[in-house]
Amino acid sequence: QVQLVESGGGLVQAGGSLRLSCVASTRIFRLYDMGWYRQAPGKQRELVASITTGSTNYADSVKGRFTISRDNAKNTVYLQMNSLKPEDTAVYYCNMNRRWLANDDDYWGQGTQVTVSS
Q1: Are 76 and 50 in contact (CB under 8 A)?
Q2: How far apart are CA 87 and CA 69, in angstroms?
């Protein structure tokens, strides 16, 4: 059973930084696309950033402030969040998938709360 374990969330003032980490329990981590999503109260879950073997993608709202990266040797994906804003407050979820291979090859972490105070 694949598990994703997130860490690094917390409370930070506007303008501050946080780094989220997500460790995956799989031997083929390097073959998966990884992503970070977030869900704020009363809103739908949205993609924040994703990373494949060779490219990254960001939501317009976080471009230039957030950076996604991965360390395949450590089975870990990171989300460095700088210049945080109150509207970044949400539960952040790690995702690992090979949807291009199979619809059910798709895994989620339990989520980590990020709260940005003004």
Answers
A1: no
A2: 22
48, amino acid identity: V
Task: Compute, in degrees rounded to 10, the torsion defined by CA atoms 20, 26, 29, 35.
Answer: -40
- Matching residue, tokens 């390097």: 30
Query: How many distinct helices (H) and strands (E) make up the chain?
Result: 0, 11
- The parts of the chain modelled with pLDDT lower than 70 are none
Burial classification of residue 12, based on how many CB atoms lie within 10 Å of its CB (0-12 exposed, 13-18 middle, 19 or more buried): middle
Tokens of 107: 């895994």
| 63-80 residue pLDDT tens | 999 999 999 999 999 999
CB 97 within 8 A of CB 41: no
Q: What angle do CA 10, 37, 6 make, to 5 degrees?
A: 45
The residues with which 38 forms a beta bridge, in sequence order, are 46, 92
In contact, 48 and 38? CB cutoff 8 Å: yes
